[in-house]
Design goal:
Number of domains: 2
Radius of gyration: 19 Å
CATH architecture of the largest domain: 3-Layer(aba) Sandwich
Bound molecules: NADP nicotinamide-adenine-dinucleotide phosphate
Strand order of the largest sheet: 1-11-8-7-5-6
CATH class of the largest domain: Alpha Beta
CATH topology of the largest domain: Rossmann fold
Oligomer: single chain
Helix content: 25-40%
Length: 293
């Protein structure tokens, strides 16, 4: 069994990005700039956004964080998005989800200029991805593709079973794994909460990508010998022994599943670190005008 080291892979990608930024600076080019909008003080969201800003600093990007109180109106938020769309110094920006209940997330995501939508959540980027046109890919599925590629895992002709159909992970993952590319060319089954006899599908899988947010849902009896298992799940479970009071649990019962696998991601240290690396990669692409020439 080989452990897919997301931390090491993420560091390698970030080093490549940093080298490219250094070269851009050396020739007097424009330094990539990522902005983030954060609304409210949800613990998870604050940590995620701070990590993104720190990652920008590490690779030499400019970064801006706009942190608003929960009471910000939808109108004010849309105005800020308009301003960032027009700001030539900002190559890409993200609006951290979830948003407070009084703000419509669809409206907000659609207000972002697709050319600056480095999260890849705008319907235009989703549509371009489905159509096989250049697009910003959502960071988590793109990170999983990088992991498969950098570990040279064969995907062509394999049966890939994706658990979960969210817009940010499961659905795009299923589309990307079915594409006529590498990684890709899989026969894909997409399972969700209405799937009948889900283990029937996972037992046939050469590759399982679990993104449901149910700790230790995937057990050894659901996995075939030699499978590749990618665990996207990161659920906070209480842990009094930790300073934070919680720890992260994946969707896979790692101890019993790992011995059956050819490759498996740990949680933490698997898919998570790649998500930030891919956001930086999208921002670099935005600065280089690679997607929308
Ligand atoms: P989500 O929007 O809550 O979607 C969960 C999906 O799982 C839904 O499609 C749901 O089905 C399905 N599901 C729930 N219970 C199920 C069950 N018992 N059997 C089969 N399917 C079930 O979640 P998400 O945003 O995609 O996130 C999934 C997990 O990945 C979470 O733990 C999240 O924290 C983690 N995550 C990690 C990263 C990272 O960087 N590592 C990034 C994003 C998300 P229905 O559609 O039928 O409701």
């Amino acid at each position: 069994m080989t452990l897919l080291d997301g931390k090491k892979t993420s560091e390698a990608i970030q080093n490549e990005i940093a080298a490219e930024v250094a070269a851009i600076k050396a020739r007097g080019g424009k330094v990539p700039h990522l902005a983030a909008i954060l609304v409210g003080n949800d613990g998870g969201s604050v940590t995620y956004v701070n990590n993104k800003v720190l990652a920008c600093e590490r690779v030499g990007f400019g970064s801006s964080l706009f942190h608003y109180d929960e009471s910000i109106s939808e109108e004010e938020l849309l105005l800020k998005i308009k301003e960032l769309n027009l700001d030539a110094d900002i190559d890409g920006f993200i609006v951290q989800l979830p948003l407070p209940k009084h703000i419509d997330p669809e409206k907000v995501l659609e207000a972002v200029d697709p050319q600056k939508d480095v999260d890849g959540f705008h319907p235009i980027n989703v549509g371009r991805m489905v159509a096989g046109l250049p697009a910003y890919l959502p960071a988590t599925p793109a990170g999983i593709l990088q992991l498969l590629e950098r570990y040279q895992i064969e995907t062509s002709g394999k049966h890939c079973v994706v658990l979960g159909r969210s817009n940010i992970v499961g659905s795009p993952m299923s589309i990307l794994m079915a594409k006529n590319t590498y990684p890709g060319n899989c026969t894909v089954t997409l399972c969700h909460s209405r799937t009948k006899d889900l283990p029937y599908y996972t037992r046939q899988a050469d590759i399982i990508i679990a993104a449901i947010g149910k700790p230790e849902f995937v057990t050894a009896d659901m996995v075939k010998e030699g499978a590749v298992v990618i665990d996207v799940g990161t659920t906070r479970v209480p842990d009094a022994s930790r300073k934070s009071g919680f720890r992260l649990r994946g969707d896979v019962k790692f101890e019993e599943v790992a011995p059956k696998c050819s490759y498996i991601t740990p949680v933490p240290g698997g898919v998570g670190p790649l998500t930030i690396a891919m956001l930086l990669k999208n921002t670099l692409s935005a600065a280089k005008k690679e997607v929308y020439a």
